[in-house]
Structures are given as C-alpha cells and as structure tokens.
Specification:
Blueprint lengths: L25 H12 L2 E6 L3 E6 L2 E11 L7 E7 L5 E7 L1 H6 L7 H8 L1
Antiparallel strand pairs: 1-2, 2-3, 3-4, 4-5
Length: 116
C-alpha cells in the first residue's frame, strides 16, 4: 500500500513498514520519516481528515486551513483540529524566517537547532 489517498488493497494490513510516502520535497520526506521513527505515522487522508497513528492508536486530525508556501512568506502553515477538539498551528519554512519568529527566551533549543 501507499500512504496518502487510501490507495491499496483493503485486505492488506497497513503498517509503518509497508507504507511508502511520496513527498513534494526532500524536507517534507525527512519530516515524515523522522516523525515515523518517533511513533507518529501518517496513515491516510480524505479531503479534510488526516489519520495518524500515534503510538499504535489511530487518531483523526481535521485540517481547518492551509496557507501554502510562497516566496514572500517563505513558509507554509496549517491549522488542524486535534481529536480532543484543540486547534493547533503547524509551520515549516526557511531557517532564517523561522528563527526570526522564535519566541524570546527559547533557551538552548534555538542554539541546538542552529547547530544541527
């Protein structure tokens, strides 16, 4: 099976080992593979619903809004509603743009991230 649009044989068990991701950039692929290694893996999605397995339990996150990447903003962001009903903002973008937006007093996280 392939991750993404729910393609594949319905009789085949979807597991982290047999899902193949297709990403629009190497950065996106690295983020998804890194999350998968930490116990979070994208299983499938419909128009607005994203199904993610978190430590073995399937959870549905509802996509509320997307601001696509563009050359002016140099970042993309999306708002999702968690299974508990909370709204969360996720942002990814160019390092220089993201560092400018880090909260003051981020402490060692900022330095470690820059070195990495």
């Amino acid at each position: 099976p392939k991750g993404g649009e729910g393609e594949g044989d319905d009789d085949q068990l979807w597991t982290p080992e047999n899902v193949v991701y297709q990403a629009s950039s190497p950065d996106e692929e690295a983020l998804v593979i890194g999350a998968k290694g930490q116990g979070f893996w994208f299983q499938r999605r419909s128009y607005r619903d994203c199904y993610v397995v978190v430590d073995g339990e399937e959870k549905c996150f509802v996509l509320q809004s997307v601001n696509e990447f563009n050359s002016t903003r140099k970042r993309m962001s999306c708002v999702v509603q968690t299974p508990e009903g909370k709204l969360m903002l996720f942002v990814k973008g160019a390092d220089n743009v993201m560092f400018e937006r880090m909260a003051p007093g981020t402490g060692p996280l900022g330095g470690v991230t820059k070195v990495h």
